[in-house]
Amino acid sequence: MHTRLNQAQPYALGLFRIVIGLLFACHGAASLFGVLGGAMNGNSIPTGTWPGWYAAVIQLVGGILVTLGLGTRIAALICSGSMAYAYFKVHQPEALFPLQNGGEPSAVFCWAFLLLVFTGPGALALDRLFSRGGTEREKDRASEQAPPVTV
Q: Could you report the per-residue pLDDT of 47-106, keeping only the tens digit for each?
């Protein structure tokens, strides 16, 4: 069973990346364009408003890049930092815990994107199409790794 789960890991990670990126991009689109319920009572955030409008741009662009798997690690790092800033500057001063201050989405997105920084995009990423010899590098890397320990 462990072998099958290990074989499916890149695809599960790719699906995780796609879902997280799409949710993040939808949040940015809602804030920027007032779609999907909008940000402020169904409206969009006024252009250039600090920090909301800039955060929404990061959410939309970063979410799209992560969804597509294009520059995933860098985009995920910027998205993670954006959500850390949102949590500590906007939510945390209201109360200590995310459940009390409404910062749960910021905290979850921050950690999800940070995970993608370290794991990479997984399967089904455009990064793999544009990297030269990507499949050869993956084969070399896989052969260098120690065999999985079975219990």
A: 888 888 999 999 999 999 999 999 999 999 999 999 999 999 999 999 989 999 999 999
Residue 20 forms beta bridges with which residues?
A: none
DSSP letter assigned to residue 45: P
Question: What pTM does this model have?
Answer: 0.81
Question: How many Å apart are CA 122 and CA 77, to the nearest integer?
Answer: 16
Which residues, in sequence order, are CB contacts of 85 under 8 Å at separation 6+?
Answer: 51, 55
- Nearest 5°: the CA angle 148, 127, 77 is 85
**Residue 131 falls in which region: left (phi positive, over 0), alpha (psi -120 to 50) or beta:** beta
Nearest Cα residue to 66 out of 133, 137, 124: 124
Measuring CA to CA, how many Å separate 39 from each of 32, 45, 76, 97?
A: 8, 7, 22, 23
User: 70 CB contacts (<8 Å, ≥6 apart)?
Assistant: 125, 126, 127, 130
Q: Give the type of residue at 77.
A: L
